[in-house]
Amino acid sequence: MTRADRDLVTALRAELAAIDPSRPCDRVAEAAGLGADPVQRESAVARLAHRLGRRSAEAAAPPPPATAEGEPGFDWSRAADHCRMAYLRGRFLARGSLSLAGARTHLEFVVDPDEAPVLAGWLAGAELPASWRMRRGRGVVTWKNSETVGMFLRRIGAGAALLELEARQVSRALRGELNRVLNAESANLQRVVSAAGRQLDAIGRLEADGRLAEQPYVVRLVADARRETPEATLAEIADRLSLHRSSVQRALERLERLALHDDEGVGRRGRGGGRRRGGRPGGSVPADQAAAPLA
């Protein structure tokens, strides 16, 4: 990630850690999500853990039941939606990480092996389906869809930092689309320039040897238009001459094809029918092949 992306992730986590749940049940749920020893123990999360513990003690809130591993448990099936989101916020701050590498968004929880399928099932029930796998003996619950990540962060309370994240994603998408369009337009322009160069060269050669003047009217018309507007596309020439684009394309292809041949009979009209099969232009026959006179 870039430094700007890392700063944005840090700001987002600090924003989530600064949320002060008003309901005692939400404070208990978030404390359960943080666990006894959060992995991500940055200062904002440490202050949150201390604040939740102090507020719970002041309110004399009953501690959640302990799991077999000794960490606070959470009864997802009986919890209200706001308690579930508070729990997930604590779990993300304790065991979650967010990566904004390039145009991709990647969020994952690294938890105990037994917790991974349970957490993935809870997320699916909350309409936030995630994949999970084992990695180096740890369970990893993962999202790689930016829309799902955004929905999750919004539901657990992210605000200003999430808006900045979404704005950056939109900006990146627009830049990517703009680059794609510009690259396509550049490639098209290069093809037009290359084709126009070949066509102008062909027109010049045909004009020099006199064959251009003997071409059909439409071909000469298109040749004149190409010389006057070398940068024009086929569609633009067709519109200018009130012709079909296919007619313009065929005329230019004819000019290029004729320019490849040096034989004077290629492309000429009124030359005795052109080249006959097995003979010479105009139908002439060599003297040594002429039939002998009848006696």
Percent of sequence in beta strands: 5-15%
**Second CATH tier, the architecture of the largest domain:** Roll
Give the SSE order as H and E letters.
HHHHEEHEEHHHHH
**Number of E-state strands:** 4
- CATH level 1 name of the largest domain: Alpha Beta
**SS-based structural class?**
alpha+beta
Rg (C-alpha, Å): 38 Å
First CA to last CA: what distance? 101 Å
Q: Within the largest sheet, what's the order of strands?
A: 1-2-4-3
Fraction of residues in H or I helices: 40-55%
The number of domains is 2
Multimeric status of the protein: single chain
Low-confidence parts, pLDDT < 50 over ≥5 residues? 60-72, 266-295
CATH topology of the largest domain: Endonuclease I-creI
Supply the number of helical segments: 10
Main sheet?
Answer: 4 strands, antiparallel
CATH homologous superfamily annotation of the largest domain: Homing endonucleases
Report the average pLDDT across residues.
Answer: 80
So what's the overall shape? rod-shaped
Word description of this protein:
The chain is an alpha+beta fold and 295 residues long. It folds into two domains: 3-158, Homing endonucleases (Endonuclease I-creI), CATH 3.10.28.10; 179-266, no CATH class. The protein is 55% helix and 7% strand. The protein is built from ten helices and four strands; from the N terminus they run ααααββαββααααα. The chain has helices at 3-17, 24-34, 43-58, 81-95, 115-125, 146-155, 160-208, 217-228, 234-241, 245-259; strands at 96-99, 106-111, 131-135, 138-143. A four-stranded antiparallel β-sheet has the order 1-2-4-3. A hairpin with a 2-residue loop joins β3 and β4. The chain is rod-shaped. The N and C termini lie far apart (101 Å). Mean pLDDT is 80; it is low at 60-72 and 266-295.
